[in-house]
Amino acid sequence: MNNPENPTVVIVPGLRDHVADHWQTHLAEKLPNTRTVPPLEHDKLSRDARVAALDRVVADIAGPIVIVAHSAGVMITVHWAQRHTRAIRGALLATPPDFESRLPDGYPAPDDLSRNGWLPTPRELLPFPSIVAASTNDPLARLAQVAEMARDWGSRLVHLGAVGHLNPASGYGLWPRAEEFVRELARTYEDAAH
């Protein structure tokens, strides 16, 4: 069983799955106790398959958990939270996409997302503390839309500035603030427990 002060960090990538120079990959390599939701072989656009993959990873962990989700990984996490009751210390939800608006070329269209179970985006209060890290120039979501999602989820909204989609294409590789947010979420839970 894990030390309560050292939760397992569960990395939830977006629809592009594992990307070698992504900040989530660097974080998983740096932190001592991480698990990454593995890529799907089939049904890659299926919300149910993605949520089930996250649930399998979470179910295999005995101790406390902090979730670190990026992009569509945020949507996987909020859909998962609607149907599962496993206690989570907290979640870092970085640059969630606005699946209800048309995404740039190369990303799924709203009809494809709807057909595969992603829409509507859950807006219920999350059952765990969370931080939404938002970009002012994210091509996948307007800041105002991300702020609304954060409010509905009960998340603390952090403005990162102009960081694009916070991915290698936007220059993020390493993102040291992710570690700060993970530590904050672990402390928030510990403070609430005392």
UniProtKB/TrEMBL annotation:
Upper lineage: Bacteria, Bacillati, Actinomycetota, Actinomycetes, Pseudonocardiales
Gene3D superfamilies in the cross-refs: alpha/beta hydrolase (3.40.50.1820)
The name this protein goes by in its record: Alpha/beta hydrolase family protein
Organism: Saccharopolyspora shandongensis
GO molecular function, one term: hydrolase activity
Domain of life: Bacteria
